[in-house]
Amino acid sequence: MNQITFNFATVLFSLGIKPERVEEMENILRNTNELFDILCDSSVPLMKKEKVAKLVFNDDETAFIVTVCREGQAQHLYEIFDKYVEIYKKKKGILKAYLRCVCPPTEEQKSGLIRFLSKKFNAQEIELEIIKDNSLIGGFVLECEGVEFDRSIKRKLEDLRQTTVGEA
Which of 2, 17, 126, 144 has the fewest CB atoms below 10 angstroms from its CB? Predict the structure, then answer.
């Protein structure tokens, strides 16, 4: 992700376009390969790109996409949309967390983890993605904002092995 992509994502955020609409924009481009190809093709005049974009997008969205095309960055639209989502979530205090576990948590356990993370990271909202990972044997690994909380049986066994090897 480069600075230009970040700058465009910031502009998109400042336009006040909702995340749901940005997702729709991305889906339109992904499901209409011809449209994306036209936007990325440097041999297609900018006026034609604008005409085509107006058929699908509103005025603000069209202006944004045309600006991206004018700067020769249309091939990075998907990255821009991804970065927009990151910026949106950060500004709104929404964090993404990953829970790796053998068995999914109960609703009570899940609520407790979300409360813990909200307090620890001062977040308004936590999006918790649960990933099944049999290699942990039991317990869980919780990761958020680059911080890992490893409460797995696998980790405990590794720690025990290190202690035993260290004593030998």
Answer: 2
